[in-house]
């Protein structure tokens, strides 16, 4: 920086001791805005290093901050060194003044001086500016150790300020409009703290072309991330890389991929930091876990616990000084908090440990990233449902209970509280509704404004279903509604024509109602049983329709479902979820839930 007597910056000077600019290059490059010989070059002549500044738009960038730019350059012509000057005014970018070349004994190189600055640039003299400049050029210096770059007289040496550098494993990324298979991602962790956490984007040659804020929480880490791909060269050519609001769908997809990788990396790094402390606590006998994690839930649970323990140890002198018994009691309390209420963990740490505000925010973000609360909730949900399926199987197939289980008060009570047995999608359920109440609810759901009259069967009597469920069908048909009426039969009953007629009477009564035949409704009727006689078997196994269908119309189907089919379909859905989440529910969890559930619905 060129400063005046008062310390103000009057000019910016860039000095390069390279080959200089030949007169031929000057005539070509500076006479043709946007055209550069560097476009045809990928490597420097002498050292084969990647070439900076191939865009040919350097002057445009200069003149966003200055009114006048001067180049003084010295190049080698045969055995002679020749020097000349170039000058461009911001109000006449198409015109470049060139002086005559004169012989000199000075070494080759170029000095660019930006004068008549459009605003003060006092920030360029700060330590923050030096750090920012260093982070941009750090990968280049690491790639070419013989290169020396200085800023305000201070040499940039990333080897001094780098704590750790890691190349993250990458694989092809399927974007909305293309596949990116050359993305490289490097993370550099810096010594000391930095307020700026950036993702720097570079072309396939490793030259930084632009950057954006990382927006990735990483407690106790100062870092920069570097992403390289030929795709970023395309965006740089379109002047998009430095725009926070760039909406290119492929770039947004890659950016999310990069941020996701960074979040995973720093979550693991945070856990790694805690390992020394964790081993010490294990040696003391204060660590509340034994052996290896049982499943994915406990694995993530321990990871969050270890990070929380590190936070406690780092910010609580009392904990560090406490004896082993007190540490174990504290950590057991912390373990239970992680296990049963991880979403409240930040509040607990703030109250108990007085965790600083910055660490509170970062720890909350870290918890959100692990999604531990969702996983634990899912684990509990799966355990509850496995228990329900086990109890239901016992009720309908176990000889001890099969003949004594009743529809009312037992079987219907279990189904009432677990309508997911017939699907997750229903947004309302009604237990033991009469036919009139069913059509009233349908009218409300459809917004028809009708007030249905009393709905009766053909014999003039009313009817009452065991369960009635409704949903709005997702997808393009947003106004389409689907309804499910369920009639349950006790396990010890072999149904026949009488039981099937009961559901058909409900169907016939509802079919006469205007809202039943609404063009946006679809109805299913389930008669659920354990066994059926030969008459029913013949009706639901016909070549003209799917197995299980007893009657079918334009907008309705009447099914006979066995409890075995209901159980198999439900178990298959939950096994898939369990496999995807890698959740293992222990026998103890299931046994405890079965005991509670059985006491409420199975009577000896």
Describe the structure.
Strands 1, 2, 3, 4, 5, 6 and 7 form a seven-stranded antiparallel beta sheet that branches. The protein has a six-stranded mixed beta sheet with strand order 17-18-19-21-24-23. A five-stranded mixed beta sheet has the order 10-13-16-14-15, with helices on both faces. The radius of gyration is 37 Å and the shape is elongated. Residues 34-44 and 46-57 have low confidence and may be disordered. The protein has 20 helices and 24 strands. The chain has 604 residues and is an alpha+beta fold. The protein has four domains: 2-123, Heat Shock Protein 90, CATH 3.30.565; 133-143 and 154-261, no CATH class; 274-370, no CATH class; 384-597, Trna Endonuclease, Chain: A, domain 1 (3-Layer(aba) Sandwich). Keywords: ATP-binding, Nucleotide-binding. Pfam families: HATPase_c_3 (PF13589). This is ATP-binding protein. InterPro entries: HATPase_C_sf. GO terms for molecular function: ATP binding.
